[in-house]
Amino acid sequence: MLETLISMVVNKSVEVVVGILLEKFCKWVLSDTNIKSANNFLKMQILVLYLNWILRKTSLKPLPKESEEKDEETGG
User: Fold this and answer.
1) Residue 60: left (phi > 0), alpha (psi -120 to 50), or beta?
2) Which of 23, 34, 65, 70 has its CA 20 to 30 Å from the CA of residue 14?
């Protein structure tokens, strides 16, 4: 009987503590500063993915022969 009562008290205490921690965690995650930070991070990731896609899409062209010869003459 006593073991059952202790078990019930411990279970209820764990439920209350976990509930409080979960509530605080949700408030922290949904705070304005975290949402703004996540929004900025997401925008940067989208920009990086777009630039990566653009760079992979465009092919690099070799320098024309005239440019190479002019560079050699000027010492560059």
Assistant:
1) beta
2) 34
Provide the sign of the torsion angle of the four alpha carbons 29, 33, 35, 40, taken in this order: negative
Render pLDDT for 13-56 as a digit per residue (tens, 0 to 9): 999 999 999 999 999 888 999 899 999 999 999 999 999 998 88
Model pTM? Answer: 0.48
**C-alpha 44: how far from chain center:** 9
* 28-58 residues labelled b (16+ CB within 10 A) or e (exposed): eeeeeeeeeeeeeeeeeeeeeeeeeeeeeee
